[in-house]
Amino acid sequence: MAGDHFFLELEPPNKNLSKAAHVVIVGGGFAGVRACKALAKTDVRITLIDKRNFNLFQPLLYQVATGLVSREDVATPLRQLVGKQPNVQVLLGEVSQLNPSQKQIVFNGKAYSYDYLILATGSGSSYFGHEEWRSFAPTMKILEHAEEIRRRLLMAMEQAEQMPDAHARQFLQTVVIVGGGPSGCEMAGAVSELMRNAMQREFKQLDPTTTKIYLVDPGERVLRAMPEGLSNSAQRTLESLGVEIIFKGRVESMQPGEVIMSTPNGEQRLQAATVIWTAGVKPSHLGKKLAESIDCELDRAGRVVVEADFSIRTHPDIRVVGDLCCYKHTKDGNPLPGMAGPANQAGGFVGKDITALVSGSTRPRFDWFDFGSMAVLDRIAAVANLRGLQFSGGIGWLLWALAHLAFMPDRENRFTLLFKWLIAIVSQQRSAMLLTGMPSQHIGNDMPDAHFPMPNVKGPSIATPDAALKAAMSYYSQQVSGISAQPKAGTDESSEDSVAANK
Ligand SMILES: Cc1cc2nc3c(=O)[nH]c(=O)nc-3n(C[C@H](O)[C@H](O)[C@H](O)COP(=O)(O)OP(=O)(O)OC[C@H]3O[C@@H](n4cnc5c(N)ncnc54)[C@H](O)[C@@H]3O)c2cc1C
How far apart are CA 280 and CA 19, in angstroms? Predict the structure, then answer.
């Protein structure tokens, strides 16, 4: 490989480490950062490579999308987080190739050697083969997605404020969220709060109660991974917030401004200015790259099937952790869930295991501790399932807040978040409501999330801030307002409104 690529040799971060084993960690998310920290006191030289220069706390992306917190509150520069660790070198780059037989990786066109490789590149979103939906219904995986959703929501509200036609206003105030898992439910609750409460005082023409939020799920209950009682409680809370949940709804097709679903009662069409996708996850492409270069198994989703120590059977020097791995050595045989907790624990374990290997001490065993799961639904209401103990309402929210603050790797952000949450509870104000900027496209080419919107795909472009909304409105004017364009006998309002909507 070095023959094809310039071979990169860097001085170790610390001269005492010139003969130490070299651990290369790819991905500075939950698992990668935790592995790095677990190796802090070990005599190894660590290189942490990430295509972004920051660690992102994905569980709070929905709060960025709904203006509760801003990007800096959920993201921390990797150099700030682990760069001060004496044995760590942080590099910005996208790993594109793996060559396990030569113990090398390629990033930014350069070959780089390792003794141990930890792959922690996480996952992206999946549209189940319908990549063309990506630009109609943004997902929530990277910061730019959350900011794009916020921009679409705010732009729709701004347009609604100056829309005289009642039907068109309703269209602008309608949001469809696809996926009734934790992200979809959290998003639905937060959007409802944003539109009904925060906007109530600030918008003079809008009636927040006419806002429509649909949550579409193909199953029979929301939060399917939780016990039924908590699912029902979550459903009740969301419904009390005005969220209409459509069960057994399977999205079949999409265009700007419209979602077409199959339901047990036949086809159902929802017209909405804003559509948000929280439905599918797909592992990082490096799993496939690994399987192309060595004999290793991928599960049906494309995750790398690993041994009990997260290594590959034929390559004990390679560990795969976090969302990218399929770890089945659990007590019940079910794979570890793709969540922050397992990613954190696996990263910590692998760090300790490599420490034991280089120091010749007894190797640890991985025992997965399942803390449970939770989802916040309203300003101070959440559901939480903690090892069989079920909580909802205010206590659920308190547990949710404590867990998220504990998991947040940056101490300063913990204080900022707590402060912003408390302000929001008391004042019902949101602190991050600026309509700004274009999403950066500089996130690499091989992840589907990088193509946002997809090139060469018909649909709204985000090249101009309100393009998505314009496409939706244009669809609305052509298809939907045809209904409202029929003058209602005896009402002056109807004809004037329809003209305005069609403009
Ligand atoms: C919207 C949302 C909400 C969530 N809510 C929760 C929740 O409430 N609770 C919970 O437990 N879990 C939640 N999760 C899941 C949780 O965030 C993931 O399980 C966790 O982030 C996985 O950690 P990871 O370290 O495997 O990957 P990540 O945290 O995704 O980190 C992967 C890193 O690898 C980098 N990378 C990727 N490819 C490359 C490459 N080729 N070269 C270099 N770097 C690369 C990325 O830039 C990234 O920094 C949520 C996820 C999302 C998207």
Answer: 44
Cα of 493 from ligand 1 centre, angstroms: 50
CB contact at 8 A, 366 and 310: yes
Report which of 188, 168, 182, 167 is spatially closest to residue 244, judged by C-alpha positions. 188
Ligand 1 centroid, distance to 125 Cα (angstroms): 11
Q: Active-site positions?
A: 186
Given the CA of residue 52, which atom of ligand 1 is nearest to it? 47
| Least confident piece of the model among 218-222, 238-242, 334-338, 424-428 | 424-428
- What is the whole-number distance in angstroms between the Cα of residue 58 and the centre of ligand 1? 6
pTM of the model: 0.88
Atom of ligand 1 nearest to the CA of 281: 53
What domains sit in the chain, N to C, each tagged with a CATH number? 6-51+93-125+282-359 (3.50.50.60), 131-279+376-405+432-502 (3.50.50.60)
How far apart CA 333 and CA 364 sit, in angstroms, is 20
The answer to whether the CB of 299 falls within 8 A of the CB of 283 is no
**Cβ contact 30:337 at 8 Å:** no
Please give the Cα distance from 471 to 477 (Å, whole number).
Answer: 10
Residue 45 near ligand 1, beta carbon < 6 Å: no
pLDDT digits (tens, 9 = 90+) for 294-344: 999 999 999 999 999 999 999 999 999 999 999 999 998 999 999 999 999
Q: Is the CB of 165 under 6 A from ligand 1?
A: no
